[in-house]
Request: fold
Amino acid sequence: MPEKKQPLVELKGITKSFPGVKALSDVSFDIYPGEVHALCGENGAGKSTLIKVMTGAHKPDSGKIFIDGNEIVINSTQQAMESGIACIYQELSIAPQLDVAKNVFLGNMFVNKAGFLDLKKLYRETDDILCNYIGLKVSPKKPAGELSVGQQQMVEIGRALTRRARVIIMDEPTSSLSESEADTLFKLIKMLKDDNAAIVYISHKLDEVMNLADRITVIRDGRNIITMDTKDTTQDELISHMIGRTLENLYQKVPAKQGEKVLEVKQLSKADVFQNVSFSVNKGEILGFFGLVGAGRSEIMRAIFGVDKYDAGEILINGKKLSPGNPACAIEAGLGFCTEDRKLEGLMLRLSVLQNMTLVKLPAISKAGVVNRKKQSSLVNQYVENISIKTPSVHQLTGNLSGGNQQKVVLAKWLMMNPDVLIVDEPTRGIDVGSKSEIYGLLGELSRNGVAIIVVSSEIEEIMGICDRVITVCEGEVTAEMDIEGLDCEAVLSAALGRKHRHNAEIVNNTKTGNKA
Amino acid sequence: MNSNSKETNLWKKFLEMNGSGVLIALISFIILVSIISPHITGGKYLTWTNIIQVFRQQTYIGIIACGMTFVIISGNIDLSVGSQLTLLTVLCANFSHYGNLAAIFGTLTLGLVLGFFNGLFVSGLKLNPFIVTLGTGSIFGALAMILTSGFTKRADSTLFNYIGTGSVLGFIPMPVLIMLCVVLIFAFILKRTVFGQRIYAIGANPKAARYSGIRSRAFVAITYILSGFCCALAAITLIARSTSANPAVAGGKEMDVILSVVLGGTSILGGKGSIWGTVIGFLFIGFMSNGFTFLNFNQYMQWVVMGIILVIALAIDVYKQKGRV
Amino acid sequence: MNSNSKETNLWKKFLEMNGSGVLIALISFIILVSIISPHITGGKYLTWTNIIQVFRQQTYIGIIACGMTFVIISGNIDLSVGSQLTLLTVLCANFSHYGNLAAIFGTLTLGLVLGFFNGLFVSGLKLNPFIVTLGTGSIFGALAMILTSGFTKRADSTLFNYIGTGSVLGFIPMPVLIMLCVVLIFAFILKRTVFGQRIYAIGANPKAARYSGIRSRAFVAITYILSGFCCALAAITLIARSTSANPAVAGGKEMDVILSVVLGGTSILGGKGSIWGTVIGFLFIGFMSNGFTFLNFNQYMQWVVMGIILVIALAIDVYKQKGRV
Amino acid sequence: DSSKKNTAADSGPEKEKAYTIGYCTMGYSIAPWVLFLGDNLKAECEKRGWKFNMLSAEGDSELQAEQIQTMISKKPDLILIFAGDASLCVDWVKDIDAAGIHSVLVGMDVKEEGRKYATAFVGPDQEQMTYNVASEIIKEYGPDAGLTIAQIGGVPQQYDYIVRVKGFNEACKNTNYTLIEPEWAHSNRADAQGKMENLLATYGDKIDILMGYDDDLTLGAVAAIEEAGLTGKIKVYSITGMVEALHAIEEGRMVMTVQNSTAEIARVCGNVMDKILSGESVEYNNPSELFYITKENVADYKGEF
Ligand SMILES: Nc1ncnc2c1ncn2[C@@H]1O[C@H](COP(=O)(O)OP(=O)(O)OP(=O)(O)O)[C@@H](O)[C@H]1O
Ligand SMILES: Nc1ncnc2c1ncn2[C@@H]1O[C@H](COP(=O)(O)OP(=O)(O)OP(=O)(O)O)[C@@H](O)[C@H]1O
Ligand SMILES: [Mg+2]
Ligand SMILES: [Mg+2]
Reply:
């Protein structure tokens, strides 16, 4: 059992401050070979900061780090890597112009005897890792920037694997993965564990944590709260440690009155991406889109909103045709779209929380082109309060926020827009349980105010918990459309796997079992 | 969240400000020169006349730098400003023979047109701004040469005389006043208007800006048009001052302009920067070259010292940020 | 995935290549000139002598551009190359009086040293590369002036004569051979070595590179050192050819160098680019200016036409990419 | 009119007054000739125990305009100007005159309308210099010789080069010569060599004469001519009078260069300043001698640099 061995890595009394923020104060943490040690806490609790201290990406203000019982000072990520620590960081660190193989082996290239790059081996090994370990079906020569977020996350997992490290840190590795991809990862983790590697696992998906972890450490506001054995605790107890109170029900659906059709999509197609997608949403309705990574859900939404082109089909908002390929027009027509990739498509990391949040709203809070700063800051403060964004001030650069808080900023930007139709793609990616319920509450409130909402999500519970209706997508085709009420998860999951259902909820309910692909 | 006293807070804010490292370097330099120069050349450095003179000398660089700040914040570059200025001074001198109004409105209009061309190429046709503005710069410069055959054109206008040599309240020269107006208006546009905010957004993340419904292409085109407008305004103040236009007048000035902007803490990658920083930038350049005269440095010394001071100014900027962590 | 014939595939690959739009523009220009020039000046454009001549004229720009390609791909810039070249030619001329070895090794060593300084400031002290290399450029330029007091220095060496005017196999001039070696070696380093790959990674996403344990700072410093080395090599070929150095020899050449690199499709933001593109870039500039002589264009016309061709070349680049979608 | 200005006459008893001379030049370090001009002027002043204050605009005439103002504000006893632009210079001498200071133009005369404000002009004009070279050529070959002439200059926007080209072309107006468009080499001898190569590739031995507007660059072109085996076939004329150019003339690689001696200009200028500062009146035009150096007389001259 781990207790008897020496910890592989031990952090003692780590303190770390950023301007205006004390991210960590006197935090201790240890990890033994062959165990999975989960790190839990709210957004901005200091989890990522702590592991960055471990990987040499941050220098702690004070505190000690021991590896194999020897105190060391980690000065660079290189040094940490040499000590056998590898990390999948929360913010994706893909070099978009480089191809998949070069990203997987970033900083870890193969050389032949003459000391030059061994490209053959590079692509062979990448193929091996992609197929046999992480199950990613893309060409190793594809530029990584062209992958979907989920696929990029899998590339990063592959990268950590190539390190053959003794300690592998995973900071929300499944935030963009759906269940089946996540399962692949869990198998990987088991394998690594059997190899006596130590895993540090951070996730806001608490059932994952309960299933995977041997021990759990909870931190709150940069302080140690508790470290416990998983077998001695429950998810509810874990939540109460995390947020300092108990959470009754994550999903509290208050049904909204549905009105007339606001958005109608007819026979939307794009070669090789999605085909003949038709659906509509009503006022006050929350419609879920479910599917696996790469199913094409995001692509459909992007086409609707106009950031991508499509080949055929028609989009109507309030009965009026929406001109394709122009997000500005879509916004004017009353459509909002919260993208799934916050870093590349959602945020200006170099701009402040305030600037980011009000970007879409600006014309509405300005007169003759001059922004009303009072309105601006009161609006922003209101949202910072409502969805508890943890930031020293609204003028903080978004790039300095924790991952979950960045996500909240993007959400707030679209929530405050007051659209007729709001599309949210993976809205709670990286958001802690406490805030999740606040966000679900806000979405519910919007729908009760008559906004039609489309939720694209890879979390089946989320879909089941907040939606009125769900559409499943597989390989670019709509495979089923079902009312949530009385539906069970299995039906949705099997539809998402491509077992065709007729576009009719009743039939779906009748043919829950026994479908073949 | 923190309980520091107000003073340290202000100081912190100052340090966080764009270009404050450069400002510190500049102030130190000014103090140093005013102490040393009486012993070397006997010149009194810190006089009102001298300070105003530096402002006046930097008028045209300053005006163009304001426009350039917009272009750079939006993530682009305009290497044609030197040639634009040249061409516009030449045109302004030509127009001046048809009267004041012709000269002023003609020049401003043509400034907008030149900017429009750059905007068209960069944002309409999506061409690489670095190369395209080098190309249009080459064309504008050639046109100026063709118009003048390389010789200086004299302007002819009395209003110009007033713009060039008049002053307000008896102590603020007209060109400086014009520059101050540009600075104030541009700073206001950048910080307080929807347009300005969106310029930042486009520069910080063009993709996310597009996804937020910002019509980036139109906005980028407008920054180039503004840049052309600033060149025209600068051309007018320049003509007003020297009452003649020389087709070699502004060769290479784009580097001074870009240096002013970047020194002021505006990121060459876009998304970050301010007009105030730019003001510090062009004053820095102005006070340096003026100060060197007071120290009677020869040209080589000037270059060496300028190089060293640039490095020091940047080091202060970096150090001060480290200090905060 | 697609079933196109091999030819269209090659064509597609060509179009996807960095700088292929510029290459198309260049080839069209060459064809046009060789058709027109006999009627205008009677000159035969497409002769082996003339082609080799263009290569030889672009030797020093080409060599420096190879180093610059590394710097730019890693996401930085070196505005000091013009001054570095100047200083190094001057030093090389000085050293030449102590013999061939002294000249060659002395110059190369000092090239490394100059590059090291840039590297130190940019990556050691983390200063803004744009301003810092402008600053060091200012210092290097001044040193060149101080060393020569402004005069042309004569070099004295017989080896130089061979490097400058000798040729291999009777038809490849030595300077061109040197340049070709640099091109091949640098292209190889960039594409086939760990170092080259890391340069791309650093430019593409510095944070990701850092998180992957790449010692970005060391690598960035090395790119600057390489850039200095290239300047030294260029200085040697330059001296070998003109056996003299004056302190104004390379003022402003950095723009030619950067234009070559960027024309070749290397992204000024880093992470993307190739040596082959750069070769196309500097040949483009060389063939343009050579072609203009054949057309007996005056300087102003040259500028106009150059500007227009730049815009067209870029438009081809963009159009060809649109064609693909 | 020079009486109103503060000269030694006003400053009373002090006979051995240390005058301060301001020198505003369009460039100092940008080319050896201007550097020598500056140094020789300085030497002339220091020889007399005067203070010499130089401001150099390094090729930037707008900067020179500012530096004139700066110089005026320092109130020297006399301001020497090597102007980057004869037209802009009108305003400068006007301002200097208004400040009650003498101005002496060196090496570049002010435009006609400015001459009433300036005290004197020293030296040959840049335009005149090349005009004279062309006249020599016409004298040698006759205006109907049908010569094809190539030209190489430095910086196409730079005023002094523009007027040099203008002077040369002006003189060739009434001949049947073919003037090829000038090539520009930007102070880079290797580039000059390249430009000459381009010319030779285009015109071959059709070129009879090369006119270089600066020895430093001309020598690059001479190297290209040598390489093409056309030495002696293409006659090379140039200006400046560099040591290297004198060698080339000796060896027959060049035909002529014109030495516009800075020492000579400075000498004449010294005399003019003496007169002005002691209150005497001076002629406006004070020509300094130009030396036309050919194979016949090359032994008599020494290059300055
Ligand atoms: N570079 C930085 N500059 C300033 N503040 C920072 C920086 N990085 C993190 N912080 C602050 O430190 C605190 C802890 O952040 P951290 O990223 O560790 O949170 P986290 O627990 O990983 O949260 P999440 O679940 O949202 O990822 C946050 O309040 C954040 O704003
Ligand atoms: N920018 C892009 N360029 C090229 N292909 C892309 C791009 N983005 C996504 N794709 C491809 O389009 C397919 C659909 O991706 P999409 O993001 O729409 O899927 P999704 O169902 O939303 O899954 P995810 O949960 O990964 O976002 C993927 O196979 C992906 O490889
Ligand atoms: Mg985190
Ligand atoms: Mg998606």
Remarks:
- The pocket of magnesium ion (ligand 4) is lined by residues A 148, 297-298, 340, 425 (CB under 6 Å).
- The first strand of chain C starts at residue 153 and ends at 154.
- The interface with chain A takes residues 188, 191-194, 196-198, 200-201, 204-205, 207-215, 267, 271-272 of chain C (CB under 8 Å).
